Amino acid sequence: MFENLLFQDRVKEQLSSMLAGGKVPPSLLFTGPEGSGKQTAALECARVLSCEREGLWNCECAQCRRHRSLTHPDLLLFGPRSFPQEASVTAEYFLRSPNLTSYYAFVRSIRKLLKRFDPALWAGEEARLSKAAPSIESLEEQLQEIQALVSGPKAKAGARPLDTTVNRVVETAFGLEALVPDGVPIFMVRNMAAWAVLAPVGKSKTVILQNADTANESTRNAMLKILEEPPETVRFILTSSRRAAVIATILSRSRLISFEPRTAAQAQHIVSRLFRSEAKVENIGEFFHGKSPFPPDKAEGEAALFVGALLGRAMEKDAAMSGDRASNLVRQARDERVSALGVMRDVAEQTGNFGAKNAQFSNSFFVFLRAAARQLASVVADPTSSAALIVHVDRLSSKLRDAGVQYRSFNRSPELLLEAFADMFGEIP
Fold it and tell me: What is the pLDDT of residue 159?
């Protein structure tokens, strides 16, 4: 077991010992840097817990086969995605070197996304889930097409249809990524708790909550209730790249498993071995984010200019607003001679109107909103920021969140939302 968890020997020893001895605690908390293998380890734990035999890596029991394909009904996987670029990365690998290993990696990357839309998690929210239904149905059909191409007698001669179908899957996945909830919705935790008390189909149920630190206070409290009295047949695995952001009460109820950061050489080895890529990388996150059609570093730069332009207008009007971080952002925007509206229109052009003209950019609106939110948070965290400035930034942050809700819930145009946002804060004369 854990053969695919590389350069985490201490973690492998800890988890293997627990699983072999049947002493896995009700709740585990996996902490460590982004890309350190937390999700890989969590999914392997789920498989071994359900295994009908000894949990060997290549076990062919029915439970293990379903876990390897990520179709097991005893597994729930939710929480913000760490690497939404995984579909495009594994698609490149599959098309570059089509074989069972690359096919398996590609299909699992899509199944990780589909697991976020398990009906058990969306009970009572069917209207919201219905928006995702066409993409989910398309992905299932497209995966069946690929399976037929790979396993059929004309698999080698079908390079062109395989390429076409794989690219269609990636395009559909990009659209579905835009519907993955930000943070951890409380309705999902409540639905998870209701699902957890039901008897498993096999031996054991596993709940994997990625990036648990993104949950708000009400969601954390709901999670805490199920962790305080966990059903005997369920194991909870929470992951986080920010241990300090996980509340103490959850920490106290979970067995902590710490993942070590990987060196640049180790990251390079993983990228080469798992994805057959010769890309030069310093860490796994860099590799995945670099495959994004709208990379986070690009989004951060545009968001800094956007926020700087907005703050510049506000600080001109109110001398009580002051702060070093805000002043630096304002100076940067002025040096570039940009307006918030101009930045927004430039981003829209780069992203095909936020995905309206090019599906691969479907998630770009949220990438941009999150980057802008981080820039605003940096202003609030600056000890030199005045009270008047913090109040204004809080208002900006609230309106940005509203824009995200309107886009996700009402299909509002991202461009119109941001234009209205800029107008609201005095950007448009």
Answer: 47
